[in-house]
Amino acid sequence: MTRSLRHTLLAAVLLLTAAAARAQYYSWGPDAASLRWRTIRTPDVQVIFPDTASAVARRTLRFIEAARPTIGYGFRHGPLKIPFVMHPENFRSNGLVMWLPKRVEFLTSPAVHSYSMPWYKQLVAHEYRHAVQYNNLNRGVIRGLSYLLGQQGSTVGLLLLPVWLIEGDAVQTETQMSSFGRALQPSFTMEYRALGDAVRSRRNTDRWFCGSYRTNVPDHYHLGYQIAAYADTRYGHNIWDKVAWYGARNPYLIFTTSIALKKFYRTGVDHLFAETFDGLNYYWNALPARHNSSHYLSAAPVGSYTTYAYPLAVDAQRVLALKTDYDRPTRFVTIDAATGRERAVAYTGSVSTRPAYADGRVWWTEYRRSKLFEQRVNSQLCYMDLDRGKPKIVRGRRRALYPTPTDRGLAWVEYSPDGRFAVTGDAGVPRWEAPAQSELHGLAWDDRTRRLYVLVTDDSGMRLGRIEPDGTATYLTRGAYITLSDLSARDGRLYFGSIASGYDEVHCYDLATGREYRLSTSAYGSFSPAADGAGNVLMTTYDAEGYHAARQPLDTLHPVQPARLPRNVVNPPRRKWPVVNLDTVRFTAADSVSSAARHRARRYSKPLHLFKVHSWMPVALNPFKLVDEHDVDVQLGVTLVSQNLLSSAESYLSYAWNHAEGSVVKGSLRYNGLGVELDAAGTYGGNQVIYAAGRSQPLPAPDKYYSLSAGATLPLVFAAGYRTRMLSLSAAWNYSNGLVANVGKLTYDHTTHSFTNLQHIGFSEGLHKLTFGIGFSSAVQLAHRDFVTPRGYVLSAAYALNPTNGDFSDLVSVYGKLYTPGFAAHNSLTVAATYQTSVGGFRNPAGESFLSYKSARLIPRGFDSNDINSRNYFAASLDYQLPVWYPEGGIPSVLYFKRIRLNLGADYGQFEYGRFDPERRALRTATQRIHSLGGDLCFDINVFRQPASATSTLRLSFYAPSKGGLWWSASLGLPF
């Protein structure tokens, strides 16, 4: 191994370790303060949930108990004993398993885009498998680290299995525990099928693990499953059990996955990758060739991977669709069906459910975060008059899905945190409560039958239903484990996507005859059907360039016979596991009664669970600074770290010792469970801080130092779709026992231009500081290739004072920053400016404050706060940033360079200060000006094949300050 390669590997290891250290202190974010929490304990798990989600919690516990006996299949150890925390008010459905503290997080709102298994079963199968992986990694040396470091020692074990494998194995478990699960869906392999042999065309395969800014790359869930499932079939067992076993006992070898695969199976990741995709392509190439029956509508050139979604007929000439590409975020466009020309209408936020169009108005829903709480994310009902192109919201409709115009007004699906769905709407729309344990994944209105139709998911699978005028429902089809999607209706037919044929195709259901037909034939898949009223059906059709708006006549009907399962066409044979099929598990009323009798729900007190010490370490550091400021200040000592299971409180306590200060104890608590973010901190030990009036003033012997501080911040988020605004109000108080010079006692001799009693004024103990701040920001959404918002601004102001000492000057500071587009795509021009000055307090004859505060915001690069004075300080900066190269290469499996950016920067600052004029023998006010010029090289990188979501930025800065020399720095920007 060459010296340069050793250095590169060492740098990569340090980078990944730093990322892991910061990721350890991850907070999911608080729920609404009004929630009242309950808990259920069993011998194996604990479920923590708001009382509004009691039924959801009981159901989930039933599925956990059903999955537990076989969830660990293939590994030598079963799942961790771990708490499950349920968040019922976030429509962005997801799950997460984390250490620090150890827990499983469930966002219980069912996913909008899902397959035929109910959401809670999907969550249990996938996330509980992670608890198995974690338990098998928390062995050997890693278990020893957990005794030394607490749970953060266990977290090191997560570096011993690659993320793509961790998620791929979980997807495999989710698939094995269902009748026709996630990885068997045709859409799961669709992107790889469209890419074909391109997946094997690169010698360095890191792109397929780490993602790309140039082209579409399926995520690590897709990649991980394909490799894991192939290896499981190839070797006849779960080979990752031995990889985890070996890594946990030899973590110091770093490349434990590669070593273990070579040691036990004479293979490696690259070899498995090649075998997996050679086999997949061989299988797919042997399938009968397919051609699209639809025709693309848009004539716009495809400059990057593009997604059209939900095309709707506006009139005989125009089609409305949502469009997203790598260069611009989601927006509505109209397409001329005859010429293919497009016109942009309006940008949207993150769309949660499909749009609908009627009488010149578009309806849709968007994810919108509440103003105060991170875990209250709503699905907001929105609309837009097409001729005006200005999106608006319907106030009070924050839990809406699938808005649907009818002849009686607007209808929509409503979801409640208790897990229940209902169809509701304007005054003329009858309300229908969906049965318990049912999910609604579509709503449509048919103008011929004048009825609403729904797409229902329950334990039997997915099926179509009709809502009757009396508020009851009739099912049109039997439940089947065949995924249906994107329901619409027109002229006596229902239109939807279906995988019955083994491909994603457009189907229709004739309401008069009760027959189902397949309409489309696609090379890879077609989605989002909607009839245009002129004998055609609109849809999106996929190829390697993305999802295209397309159209085909309604003249080809392929009858579809009812079946319980779809055809399995695009998936090669894989080994079947002897695990429970959660589709067969039911939760009945009797199960609910039995569960309540066996496992009583108890109150979960938030105050009593404010602290949960999860980690400790034999060094003293501030984990808050580590995460927020990337400040790693390590000293001899010990640190305890705590975070509660509700992610509303974080704290630490540390003891440090150093030769200069002796013993120092520090602690801090942050609490954000009330919407207002509260914090308190204290320090005891070290040397007392002394604020002298000058170098000539004699200093007393310092005593032990101590300080106390408290603060409150009210962060308000105003999510408005494409643009998000934030308002922050803050106040903070700090007290320390610092010694402050009694400058008010100074006497000045104008003859000698000096203070005559500096030696005798002495000091007073105690220093108070009050700080008030206000900030406001506005930013638009980023496109995939953007690295900073193309349009936005930041404004802030702060005022600091000492309320008990009039000799201290107050500090007034203001700051502003403007983000604008550059001269080419994804170029960014940023301008910032600040002003601060001292007000009042004691001043010398030149107007200089002896006792004053400073703001360190926007100091020219190459200078620090010691180089400036807060008296009429003004500074400005100009930055121009642009991408220069997308190398997508590096050291295979170690360091992947995804993008290189260049930032050119210029800074200017000036301030006033007092100086002695020898000619006039008097103190004068002078102005000092400083500046710096230079630039930054930014490397967007992935280490050890971390996925696209873990892309980090290494920034190397080089600036020439006016004081001379060359200033440089290196910093790491992490995605957590």
Overview of the structural elements:
With 976 residues, the protein is α+β, with helices and mostly antiparallel strands. It contains 14 helices and 51 strands. It has an 18-stranded mixed sheet that branches. Strands 6, 7, 8, 9, 10, 27, 28 and 29 form an eight-stranded mixed sheet that branches. A six-stranded mixed sheet has the order 4-5-3-2-1-31, with helices on one face. Helix 3 (119-137) crosses helix 6 (163-176), helix 6 packs across helix 9 and helix 9 (220-235) crosses helix 12. The protein is globular and about 110 Å long.
How are the secondary structure elements laid out?
Layout: H1 3-24, E1 37-41, E2 45-50, H2 54-71, E3 82-87, E4 94-98, E5 103-107, H3 119-137, H4 140-149, H5 151-155, H6 163-176, H7 186-195, H8 206-210, H9 220-235, H10 240-249, H11 256-265, H12 269-285, E6 295-296, E7 306-313, E8 318-325, E9 331-336, E10 342-347, E11 351-358, E12 361-369, E13 377-385, E14 392-393, E15 400-406, E16 409-415, E17 421-425, E18 432-433, E19 439-446, E20 451-458, E21 461-467, E22 473-475, E23 484-490, E24 493-498, E25 505-510, E26 515-518, E27 526-531, E28 536-543, E29 546-553, E30 558-560, H13 589-598, E31 602-603, E32 613-620, H14 623-628, E33 635-643, E34 649-658, E35 662-674, E36 676-687, E37 690-691, E38 704-720, E39 723-741, E40 748-749, E41 754-755, E42 763-780, E43 792-801, E44 810-821, E45 828-839, E46 873-885, E47 889-891, E48 895-917, E49 922-943, E50 952-961, E51 967-973
Parallel strand pairs: 2-3, 3-5, 7-29, 37-39
Antiparallel strand pairs: 1-2, 1-31, 4-5, 6-29, 7-8, 8-9, 9-10, 11-12, 12-13, 13-14, 15-16, 16-17, 17-18, 19-20, 20-21, 21-22, 23-24, 24-25, 25-26, 26-30, 27-28, 28-29, 32-33, 33-34, 34-35, 35-36, 36-38, 38-39, 39-42, 40-41, 42-43, 43-44, 44-45, 45-46, 46-48, 47-48, 48-49, 49-50, 50-51
